């Protein structure tokens, strides 16, 4: 008799290169466990990935911390800013303020391909109809292109930011890159203390109820007591922003462990 039961899920396939990268991420996490963010960052930039690591920054409300740290280690480190053409003007102004204040010398502003936007989002309202495709066109594809010359990139993600980031590791493997999250275990108090100690400028929208700032159409102010990222894609189950991907495809929710 024919067996009509559903087939078991296929075993995950991993190439040797991916397995080695995942092993490297675990080894780096073990090696740097217990070190402070600046020490991890300095070692990653000068010893682990010299000349092959960049910072991806949204120039959001907490971005100044890593931008400041990176500028003090090597101001020529590539800083990749994805200009989706949907940012708040306040974010663009804040970017310019921080670049000048910190003396950052290698800002790489990456945009979507005009032809892709014309084809997929001619009216500029794709974010409302299909935010995943919008993020794919405006973030994921430009991001993949901008990382070509790098082996590793630095993110500002932290465990406290959302329930979906509770399992965040210090180092992760993703596609062919290592991702470093030097602030993974930082709390809001740590961030506030760093801002205060170094007298860093604040994002202009923060005081207006935006603890997390992304593209203007997909960000709203949050109410007191709400998750800091509750204002991002508030009407959707989407939680990640298009710069985190697997197999070149955007991840919209919690990331698989690397
Ligand atoms: S955050 Fe919103 S506007 Fe920005 S790329 Fe994604 S869907 Fe589009």
TrEMBL record:
Cofactor descriptive note: Binds 1 [4Fe-4S] cluster per subunit.
GO cellular component: cytoplasm
Catalytic activity: [thioredoxin]-disulfide + sulfite + AMP + 2 H(+) = adenosine 5'-phosphosulfate + [thioredoxin]-dithiol
Cofactor: [4Fe-4S] cluster
Active-site positions on this chain: 241
Subcellular compartments: Cytoplasm
Pfam families assigned: PAPS_reduct
GO terms of molecular function: 4 iron, 4 sulfur cluster binding; adenylyl-sulfate reductase (thioredoxin) activity; metal ion binding; phosphoadenylyl-sulfate reductase (thioredoxin) activity
InterPro entries: PAPS/APS_Rdtase, PAPS_reduct_dom, Rossmann-like_a/b/a_fold
Role, per record: Catalyzes the formation of sulfite from adenosine 5'-phosphosulfate (APS) using thioredoxin as an electron donor.
Protein name, entry field: Adenosine 5'-phosphosulfate reductase
UniProt lineage: Bacteria, Pseudomonadati, Pseudomonadota, Alphaproteobacteria, Rhodobacterales
Gene of this entry: cysH_2
